[in-house]
Amino acid sequence: VYEKVFHNNRKFLAGGVDLLNKKLSFSLLYREGKGYDRYFKGPMIDLIFKPMRGLAFAFSADQVHLENPQTKETQTVGLNRIDYQLTNDASIRLIFQTNLSEKTRYYSFSSLLTYRFLFGSTAYLAYNEERSKEVGMNSPKVNRLALLKISYLFSF
User: Fold this and answer.
1) How many Å apart are CA 130 and CA 140, to the nearest integer?
2) Residue 7: count of CB within 10 angstroms of its CB
3) Which of 80, 105, 118, 145 to pair with 62, CA 20 to 30 A apart?
4) In terms of Cα–Cα distance, which of 110, 85, 76, 106 is closest to 95?
5) Tens digits of per-residue pLDDT, 90-121?
6) What is the four-CA torsion angle of 105, 2, 72, 35, rounded to 10 degrees?
7) The overall pTM is greater than 0.85
8) Which residues fall within 8 angstroms of residue 151, CB to CB, at 6 or more apart?
9) Which of 55, 64, 112, 111 has the alpha carbon at shortest distance from 84?
10) Which residues, in sequence order, are CB contacts of 30 under 8 Å at separation 6+?
11) How far apart are CA 80 and CA 101, in angstroms?
């Protein structure tokens, strides 16, 4: 799919509102266009809640109707994200995504812990888990990945 040309000729209609002194925002979007050899259209809803400084909850739901010459497919994509800035140097991000269609069920969980221990030097600890299952099958395919990355700024 990624070798195909992406045509960014989409149309969209959007609206949104900020409430509670910008602690809560809501937006509604309808879009359609062509991308990667498929025509897509559908609504998308975004909701962001920031109850306190450094903490944000984000939810988006997206229903996409994909059409190509071989098949017509509807996918519902949900994305939940929590960002928390623990200190000026440490943060955590949690993401849970679902992608549901008539044929498959896909779920993913990602977490990222970031810690800046010196100026220009940062440690990252990440964990990802994906589960996908064909409708009617009993056991899902599971992929897991854990990663530790440290970047260090050498100064001479």
Assistant:
1) 10
2) 12
3) 145
4) 110
5) 999 999 999 888 788 899 999 999 999 988 89
6) 120
7) no
8) 120, 121, 122, 123, 124
9) 55
10) 12, 13, 14, 41, 42, 43, 44
11) 18
| Distance separating alpha carbons of residues 10 and 2, to the nearest angstrom | 18
Question: Which residues, 6 or more positions from 26, have their beta carbon under 8 angstroms from its beta carbon?
Answer: 16, 17, 19, 45, 46, 47, 48
Phi-psi region of 145 (alpha: psi -120 to 50; beta: other; left: phi over 0): beta
Bridge-based pairing state of the strands 24-35 and 90-101 = unpaired
User: Following CA atoms 139, 65, 24, 53 in sequence, which dihedral angle do they give, to the nearest 10 degrees?
Assistant: 50
